[in-house]
Write a structure and sequence with these properties.
The chain is 47% helix and 15% strand. The protein is α+β, with helices and mostly antiparallel strands. Among the domains are: 296 residues, Alpha-Beta Complex (Cathepsin B, Chain A); 116 residues, Orthogonal Bundle (Helix Hairpins), CATH 1.10.287. Strands 5, 8, 11, 14, 15, 16, 17 and 18 form an eight-stranded mixed beta sheet that branches. β19 and β20 form a beta hairpin. α6 packs antiparallel against α7, α6 packs across α19 and α19 packs across α21. The longest helix has 37 residues. The chain is extended. Pfam families: UCH (PF00443), USP_UIM_N (PF21909). This is Ubiquitin carboxyl-terminal hydrolase. One of its GO terms (cellular component) is nucleus.
């Protein structure tokens, strides 16, 4: 295409360039059907998506590389031990750490002994691989108890799980599915132990499983079913807190039909008959979008309390709960009516713009009380004109304008007269007395007095009505909140033990856990290898949702009255608390000691390597450096590019001097005796390097 020079002043060139640009744009649109603006927007969106993906990868690296310095991997004092992310396994770390910090669960795993006749078990039990997993889980828990490492590697246990999932290593597992699988395996493992005759009951079932009674009506026929549950699923969408989720989950269909004899409607209630010591709620934050054909995450805010009272959901309290539910329903209906009334006061009017009624009355009062002040618009214009206008400052503009054209036969040539003649604004017909601001044109003192009295009275009435409505609404809210606070409804407290958090979208993201330290009375954040102190405020920000794309997807509550869940183990003979390695069975204690020895060896080798490097640097610093050869003076008449000594010659001299210095150091250290053996080895190593 032709090149158009736009550096000159030729306007024709500019017009040709514009025409050429439009022609190019039209041709591109005809070929692709996409305008330049749409292409630009597309490029910006693509760049934004790429940046978001890159940011997510930068923020959450999924594979941790070990630091070469073992001291960076050393456990500090008695800090909790983290778990290494071995490739999209943050889901594993979050669940395992939550369970490990349940001391009763930890004891069950650590003290698990495989049955003696494991080889004679049915084939299907082996296929589940629960016993090999239990073995690796015991080793992993033992390392979390007594390791001297800052974090440990869970690869062996993870590989068994991944084989069972039959998934690609790059895919992140759904945590609910993993937790179900884990509990199933543990239940199977302890069931095998029960089959071996050691215990009649399965401790995993007793710890994590409860029962509820389903009472309902199906096509006019009543029914009752008792069902067992582990993790209890709850819908999040459309609810503001955990109690609302539970209320919705416990009632399905037309609940009124349960109490009527002749009804064809269907509905049912769920009542807990037996709660597990560890109660886990699955928050359904993922749903499938039929229109888009892909899963999406629900980022809605959902609040949950640190202490959850479950009395209202117990079967034994069903009668009083039903009464309270009916009362709450009636209060909420009344609350809706009051809120609608209040809305009419706070948003008054029939048009698109609405205002509080008390403000409308105040504006009317101010209008009625305003006095009309009429002036000419020209006066307003003159008052606002700058002093340095076309008129001399000593002559007011209004005066000049009123004079009009001169009646003299001799036309004046003064600037003032020409200015007046050529002002079309002053010669147009304008009402001489427009009001400066809105105000009543005609109102008597008697009318104004009556109107002001009415507006004052109406405004006061509206203020009182608004205040009464707001107080009534607040009072009803408070009544609903306290409906279940009486003594009979706070007998089943559950304390929040762990919150499992997901950050990201439905198809990708990062997992971590907030776990309550029941002995230190503080929250801890377990994020793969990082274990740090936290607060309830940080937990709220990351877990409630609605703030960013991080939110809780699993809540683990424990029965606050069952202290054995979090109590330390005691020595039966001395009565002292067992901590650390003392809590481990002998086989696991030996396993951890061996691993700690290997880590201590890493530390020793690192120290020796540093000492060797320090000695090498010290000896090299003592070696005299050969002086740089001074350039020979240039004789008159000789060329300035005299040949310089070659690098080979200089290196040869340096090597000879270095070898002599090292030999001298060796001779001195032989006289010092056996304590110089290490230094002698270092010297020999350095000399070998120098001779090369």
């Amino acid at each position: 295409s032709d090149v158009i020079d736009l550096t000159g002043d030729d306007k024709d060139d500019l017009q040709r360039a514009i025409a050429l640009s439009l022609e190019e744009s039209n041709r591109a649109f005809r070929e692709t059907g996409i305008t330049d603006e749409e292409q630009a927007i597309s490029r910006v969106l693509e760049a934004s998506i790429a940046e978001n993906k890159a940011s997510l990868k930068r923020t959450h690296p999924e594979v941790w590389s070990d630091s070469p310095n073992p001291y960076d991997r050393k456990r500090q004092d008695n800090c909790p031990v983290g778990l290494k992310n071995v490739g999209n396994t943050c889901w594993f770390s979050a669940v395992i750490q939550s369970l490990f910090n349940l001391l009763e669960f930890r004891r069950l795993v650590l003290n698990f002994n495989p049955p003696a006749n494991a080889q004679d078990l049915p084939r299907n039990q082996k296929e589940h691989r629960n016993l090999p997993f239990m073995r690796e889980l015991r080793y992993l828990f033992a390392l979390l108890v007594g390791s001297k490492r800052k974090y440990v590697d869970p690869s062996r246990a993870v590989e068994i799980l991944k084989d069972a999932f039959k998934s690609n290593d790059s895919q992140q597992q759904d945590v609910s599915e993993f937790t179900h699988k884990l509990l199933d395996w543990l239940e199977d493992a302890f069931q095998i132990k029960a089959m071996d005759g050691e215990k009649p009951k399965n401790p995993m079932v007793e710890l994590f499983y409860g029962r509820f009674l389903a009472v309902g009506v199906l096509e006019g026929k009543k029914f009752e079913n008792t069902e067992m549950f582990g993790q209890y699923p709850l819908q999040v969408n459309g609810f503001k807190d955990l109690h609302e989720c539970l209320e919705a989950a416990m009632i399905e269909g037309e609940i009124e039909s349960l109490h009527s004899e002749n009804s064809a409607r269907s509905g049912q209630e769920h009542w807990f008959t037996e709660l597990p010591p560890v109660l886990t709620f699955e928050l359904s934050r993922f749903e499938f979008n039929q229109a888009l054909g892909r899963p999406e995450k629900i980022h809605n805010k959902l609040e949950f309390p640190p202490i959850l009272y479950l009395d209202r959901y117990m079967h034994k309290n069903r009668e009083i709960t039903r009464i309270k539910r009916d009362e709450i329903k009636r209060l909420k209906e009344y609350l809706t009516v009051l809120q609608q009334r209040l809305e009419r006061y706070l948003s008054y009017g029939s048009g698109p713009k609405r205002f509080p009624l008390v403000d409308v009355l105040q504006y009317a009062l101010e209008f009625a009380s305003s006095k009309p002040v009429c002036t000419s618009p020209v006066d307003d214009l003159g008052a606002s004109a700058p002093a340095s206008g076309t008129l001399p400052p000593q002559i007011p503009p209004s005066t000049v304008e009123q004079q009009g054209p001169s009646s003299s036969d001799v036309p004046s040539t003064s600037p003032v007269q020409r200015s007046v003649i050529h002002k079309p604004f002053t010669q147009s017909r304008i009402p001489p007395d427009l009001p400066m601001h809105p105000a009543p044109r005609h109102i008597t003192e008697e009318e104004l007095s009556v109107l002001e009295g009415c507006l004052h009275r109406w405004r006061t009435e509206v203020e009182n009505d608004t205040r009464d409505l707001q107080e009534s609404i607040s009072r009803i809210h408070r009544t609903i909140e306290l409906m279940y606070s009486d003594k009979t409804m706070v007998q089943v407290p559950y304390r929040l033990h762990a919150v499992l958090v997901h950050e990201g979208q439905a198809n990708a993201g990062h997992y971590w856990a907030y776990i309550y330290d029941h002995h230190q009375n503080r929250w801890m954040k377990y994020n793969d290898i990082s274990v740090t102190k936290s607060t309830w405020e940080e937990l709220e920000r990351d877990s409630f949702g609605g703030y960013r794309n991080a939110s809780a997807y699993c809540l683990m509550y424990i029965n606050d009255k069952e202290q054995y869940l979090i109590q330390d183990e005691f020595n039966k003979e001395t009565g002292q608390i067992l901590v650390g390695m003392d809590t481990l069975p002998s086989d696991l204690r030996d396993y951890v000691k061996e691993d700690n020895k290997r880590f201590e060896k890493e530390l020793e080798e690192w120290d020796a390597e540093l000492a060797q490097k320090a000695q090498q640097e010290k000896l090299l610093s003592q070696i005299p450096r050969a002086p740089a050869p001074s350039p020979a003076p240039v004789q008159a008449g000789e060329p300035e590019y005299l040949e310089q000594p070659s690098r080979t010659d200089i290196s040869k001299h340096l090597k000879e001097d270095s070898v002599q210095a090292i030999n001298k150091a060796l001779a001195e250290q032989e006289d010092r005796g056996p304590e110089a053996i290490m230094d002698t080895k270092v010297c020999t190593t350095v000399m070998g390097v120098v001779q090369k």
